[in-house]
Design a protein that fits this description.
Radius of gyration: 18 Å
Distance between the termini: 29 Å
Number of domains: 1
Oligomer: single chain
Strand content: 5-15%
Largest sheet: 5 strands, mixed
CATH class: Alpha Beta
Strand order of the largest sheet: 3-2-1-4-5
Number of helices: 11
Length: 268
Amino acid sequence: MKIIYIDESGKNKESPFAVLCGISFDYSRMRKTKDAWLKFIKWLNKQGIKTSEMHTAQFFAGNGLWYKLKDKKRKSIIKAVIKWINDRAHEFCVVSAEKKRFNKAKDNSLIIYKNIWFFLAIHLIFSFSKRYQNEKGVKGDFIAIFDNGCIGDAFNNFILSDEANDLFKEYVGVETCSIKLGDAPLSANSKYSSLIQIADFIVFFVRRKIELESGVKEKYKDEKKDIDIFYKGLLKNRINQRFVYKKRCKSDIENRFYATAPDFLKNK
């Protein structure tokens, strides 16, 4: 059994993109990762930063509490966290939609277009389900835990329905496949969920990489260079893109996810 913690980025109007990241933890190994992250947060507190979570976007920019840490120190911490994530070898998946493309493609007759986060949450669950489809027994089953406010009852009702499962069969192209959710998705406050904070760390750098590759202006000189280093450092444990953005022989539902995705993400 796996537990997948999910966080979103791009809810602000400034970003042209909505991005979801899920990081997968085998239940038997997640305790060590959780304990290690909490030790890291305690270490940050010893640096004079009184906090229970990192808030990567603020940390990267040196805003709020993080102004006490100089730029060079923050960058060295980011590199250390990336190395630690890679060493722990927990897989992650990222899905994204360009907001303008989503609004243009939106078909109100189809429930998947209820809103952009509903749309991306379906894509993420489908991608992980496809990835773990061939794992035997309950090994490939998972529980999905979203950051508070990302999804609601409408999503839970849909993703457990026969309609969703039929769409997933189309997504995979195999009639005998099924969504690997072990139960209804849950929500948690990242303040109390250290593992959602790791998803927050990854999704920030992916979202910013997508923005900069799509022509969004740098916030400081050489930001694109810094983000590129951090983004590439994170790629080791990303699930294979064939589970997310297949380039050839796509079904209708795959085409809908593909059509709204940022060019950078689906071309990688």
